[in-house]
UniProtKB/TrEMBL annotation, chain A:
SUPFAM superfamilies: Periplasmic binding protein-like I. The gene is braC_1. Pfam families: Peripla_BP_6. Residues 25-360 form the Leucine-binding protein domain. This is Leucine-, isoleucine-, valine-, threonine-, and alanine-binding protein. Belongs to the leucine-binding protein family.
Automatic annotation (TrEMBL), chain B:
Belongs to the binding-protein-dependent transport system permease family. LivHM subfamily. It comes from the Bacteria. It comes from Boseongicola aestuarii. One of its GO terms (biological process) is amino acid transport. GO terms for molecular function: transmembrane transporter activity. Coiled coil: none annotated. The keyword Membrane applies. This is High-affinity branched-chain amino acid transport system permease protein LivH. It is a multi-pass membrane protein.
Length: 388, 307
């Protein structure tokens, strides 16, 4: 399986350089490939390249060249790569950014240079509201909506109060604010933990003492894995249920935590079992090409590439040569998203459905099963502040 | 309330014991060999990965843990022979640079071999569940096990250092390395042994932490900083210092996180109290270190050193 993945990756990188043809549209991908969070960027990249491979090295019939670089989760790296991409490589489309501390560095540089910025993941609030821009698109979600959907789900499940916790940094604060925006119950207590914390015994003891009806946590990556293992160890999983947002329950986290996540409710805009033709084809194709199951990040990379494909097809390959045409084509979002219905709001952020999921065991593997739609055509809270 | 306080005390004790396992090796290597080994965190990670892989292969956590010892020892031996040995007489900056390079090397190595997805490792059946301490209060068995292992390691180390001839040499070497070499002790062999033993403690700590935390690339680095705080507070080179330093750090950190926000809430509005409490509690350990360094610059239990 490893070998197959390796071969596929080699084939894809060969393909990326073969499409060096004269009129190839250059796409710069600044993403996070190294460190514990490296799998996010890896999957965005692989999903993106898969779409290109399926179209025989093109997007919308237009040859494309993708240049991929790792930002190592450091904004200063993001800046250096962005400057190189824009000046030396003259990329016309910038994409790939995973984290909300990189986006505020890369996006303004790209927009000032008169190129298009299309996010496959991070959607920080400022760019959805006051700092919105006509050439800035988000193909994933506005950050808050991830947690808003969890808040709605918790209300729908009938919980009257919740204990909420997140790491003490901007995305953590946004997460709790997002959850509270639509949660109709009371907040028993709000706890901010340290970034990169490994031991959660103190917080878990406080939760036990507070006896809330449910717990919402936004502890991305390893922190969430630590918390879930210890929460189960303390015997609280059956006593006080959790409602989580998508980043806390992707397939890699389920695999690492195992049975301790069984039965956990969570929300997402995509799941591997969504029953639409585009998604069924994507999941099969991804598994065959890479020998592993796609994460939500892979689906976002794929959708981003398909969105660009639809716009390139409409303009016949013109990007910066026909800014208005390409922008209008992107706004139309004329493609079958693997997540289902997809449209752009006036601030170029998605209007989309959010689904509820439950962690179940299928053939000894822990997977999310879609249990229903929480909210249809959900828009973000900042769209009113965007004057474009 | 008293029960919550007692539980948090136990949590602090457990975190302290765990930090001691990591710090013990660090303080030995630093104190005796005068080597700053940033790669201690990598050995922690290697231990965790070895246990995870071997546990999944053999199906038993205990077998995995025991089989991980030779793996970690082999890594430590190679690191000592190839990297550390040429650095004994270089200054600390060179050691920091070389061992920092090792961190990068092992992090990338692990992600090439295992990928970036964290490995699965859960609490073994025999140690899962909780112990009923009072009628209304139970505590996870696995955390109690960590406390027990910490105490055991402390006892073994105390015995070796205080009661055996090797221990005598280690103490002598910490105090005056030139003299012990002049007396004909094979310091090279002793150095290698201490480095490997220190690595084994780090590996053991990593293996034990696997079921509670995420077995992932770079997992040892956060702990490395905390364990440096432990040994600086305790006094570098002293096992007793490492133990007391680790317990102090564990208790201050846990109790700070548990009670500071509530305490501040007595006289501030909840939102401010929460913010300041969270900030203060993540600083508490470092504040403690500053205070200790002001009043006792060599730590609470300094080792006597020849000038």
């Amino acid at each position: 399986m490893k070998l197959k993945t390796l071969l596929a990756a080699t084939a894809l990188s060969a393909l990326a350089s073969v499409s060096f043809a004269q009129d190839a549209v250059k796409i710069g991908m600044i993403t996070t490939l190294s460190g514990p969070a490296g799998y996010l960027g890896t999957d965005v990249r692989d999903g993106f390249l898969l779409a290109i491979e399926e179209e025989g090295g093109t997007l919308g019939g237009v040859p494309v060249e993708v240049i991929v670089e790792d930002d190592g989760l450091k904004p200063e790296n993001g800046r250096a790569i962005a400057e190189r991409f824009l000046e030396r490589d003259e990329v016309e489309i910038m994409t790939g950014v995973i984290f909300s501390n990189i986006a505020p560095v890369v996006a303004p540089l790209t927009l000032r240079a008169g190129r298009f910025y299309i996010s496959p993941n991070s959607g920080p609030s400022q760019f959805a509201g006051k700092a919105c821009h006509e050439n800035y698109f988000v193909a994933s979600w506005q950050n808050d909506t991830l947690h808003e959907s969890a808040g709605i789900a918790a209300s729908n499940l009938g919980y009257k109060n919740a204990y909420i916790l997140a790491p003490n940094y901007q995305a953590g604060k946004d997460a709790l604010a997002g959850f509270k925006r639509f949660f109709t119950g009371d907040i028993v207590e709000e706890t901010y933990t340290q970034l990169g914390q490994t031991d959660y015994a103190a917080e878990i003891a406080k939760i036990r003492a507070a006896q809330p009806e449910m717990v919402f946590q936004f502890l991305p990556g390893g922190m969430g894995i630590n918390f879930m293992k210890q929460y189960d160890q303390a015997g609280l999983r059956d006593e006080i249920p959790l409602v989580l947002a998508a980043p806390s329950a992707d397939i890699n986290i389920l695999r690492a935590v195992g049975a301790s996540m069984l039965g956990v409710q969570n929300t997402s805009h995509w799941n591997h079992d969504l029953d639409n033709p585009a998604n069924i084809a994507f999941v099969a194709s991804f598994e065959e090409t890479y020998g592993r199951s796609p994460t939500v990040y892979a689906s976002q990379g794929y959708d981003t590439a398909r969105l660009i494909s639809s716009a390139l097809r409409a303009t016949g390959g013109a990007v910066t040569a026909d800014m208005d045409g390409f922008r209008a084509a992107l706004r139309a979002a004329d493609f079958e998203a693997v997540r289902g219905p997809f449209a752009f709001n006036t601030n170029n952020h998605p209007i989309q459905n959010w689904y509820s999921r439950e962690v179940v065991e299928i053939d000894g593997e822990f997977r999310n099963r879609t249990t229903g739609i929480i909210v249809e055509n959900h828009a973000d809270a900042y769209v009113g502040e965007c004057k474009m | 309330m008293t029960q919550l306080f007692f539980e948090q005390l136990l949590n602090g004790l457990q975190l302290g014991m765990f930090l001691f396992l990591v710090s013990a090796g660090l303080t030995l290597v630093f104190g005796f060999m005068n080597i700053i080994n940033l790669a201690h965190g990598s050995l922690f990670m290697i231990g965790a990965y070895a246990v995870a892989v071997l546990t999944n292969l053999t199906g038993s956590f205990f077998v995995g843990l025991i089989l991980s010892f030779p793996v970690v020892a082999a890594f430590a031996l190679v690191i000592e022979l190839l990297i550390i040995r040429p650095l004994y007489h270089r200054d600390h900056l060179d050691q920091v640079l070389a061992t920092f390079g090792l961190i990068l090397f092992f992090n990338e190595g692990v992600s090439i071999v295992f990928g970036r997805t964290p490995l699965f490792l859960n609490v073994p059946e025999a140690l899962s569940g909780a112990i009923q301490i009072t009628e209304t209060f139970s505590y996870p068995l696995y955390r109690i096990t960590i406390i027990a292992v910490g105490l055991m390691v402390a006892a073994i180390l105390w015995f070796i250092i205080v009661k055996t001839r090797t221990g005598m040499r280690i103490r002598a070497g910490t105090t005056n390395p030139e003299m012990i070499r002049a007396l004909g002790v094979n310091i090279q062999a002793l150095n290698t042994t201490i480095f490997v033993v220190g690595a084994l403690f780090a590996g053991l700590a990593g293996g034990l932490s696997g079921p509670l935390t995420s077995v992932e690339v770079g997992m040892g680095e956060n702990l490395l900083i905390l364990s440096f705080v432990c040994i600086v507070i305790g006094g570098i080179g002293s096992i007793r210092g490492a133990l007391l330093g680790a317990l102090t750090v564990g208790l201050v950190d846990t109790l700070g996180r548990a009670f500071l926000p509530d305490l501040l809430g007595q006289f501030l509005d909840p939102a401010t109290a929460n913010g300041i409490g969270a900030a203060l509690s993540s600083m508490s350990v470092y504040l403690l270190m500053i205070i200790v360094l002001i009043f006792k610059p060599t730590g609470l239990f300094p080792v006597a050193r020849a000038a």
